[in-house]
Design a protein that fits this description.
- Strand 4 and strand 5 form a beta hairpin.
- This protein is α+β, with helices and mostly antiparallel strands and 187 residues long.
- It is built from nine helices and five strands; from the N terminus they run H-E-H-E-E-H-H-H-H-H-E-E-H-H.
- The strands form two sheets. Strands 1-3-2 form a three-stranded antiparallel β-sheet, sandwiched between helices. Strands 4-5 form a two-stranded antiparallel ribbon.
């Protein structure tokens, strides 16, 4: 049985819909009868009034699989306003100066089937030291894990992970009980 697109979006992106995270990333396999681009556009129209958006970063026509990025533009601007984040992307070979440019460069990397750009963690709101820790030692467990592998500040990370789990649980229950996506997304 296939999970409907909106149901999976709520399950994967509840913390972003609630305003706890800057963005979320998830992969979805579209059913054979669905037009992925039309579906993403219709969800984008629902989210735009709440200052959220969705982008299809990568799409595999054969597998009908899309990598979707649900985000809050203002939160991404705030992340990229931090000089250490922009410097991090520069060191990683990105030439863009804003989140839109960085995201476009990542999308191009994904299209060429290069290795996955794990630096996207910065745009997902992960702490810089945790993204750097992962890039240095991806096979290590880290200090704890939830939305990401935390390599620093485990107590703070655990509190945030628990908040995200609770949010996801509540949002999934509300959606299952008939609350519309437009009502779940907060401005």
């Amino acid at each position: 049985m296939r999970i409907p697109f909106e149901t999976e979006l709520v399950r994967q992106c509840a913390p972003t819909l609630a305003g706890l995270k800057a963005s979320s990333l998830f992969r979805f396999v579209f059913p054979p009868t669905a037009d992925p681009f039309r579906l993403v556009a219709s969800v984008s129209r629902i989210l735009e009034s709440k200052h959220l958006d969705i982008a299809l970063l990568q799409y595999d026509v054969i597998k009908r699989s899309g990598l979707l990025f649900v985000y809050r533009p203002k939160a991404l601007e705030s992340i990229m306003d931090q000089p250490e984040n922009l410097e991090f992307f520069r060191r990683r070979g990105y030439s863009g100066s804003g989140w839109e440019d960085i995201l476009t460069e990542m999308s191009l990397l994904l299209a060429t089937r290069a290795s996955f750009p794990h630096e996207i963690g910065i745009l997902l709101g992960y702490p810089l030291e945790d993204v750097e820790g992962y890039l240095v030692a991806p096979r290590e467990k880290g200090l704890c894990s939830g939305c990401w592998k935390a390599y620093s500040h485990p107590a703070r990370a655990r509190r945030f992970f628990e908040k995200c789990r609770k949010c996801t649980r509540i949002y999934c229950q509300c959606y299952a009980n008939g609350t519309a996506l437009s009502q779940l997304a907060v401005a």
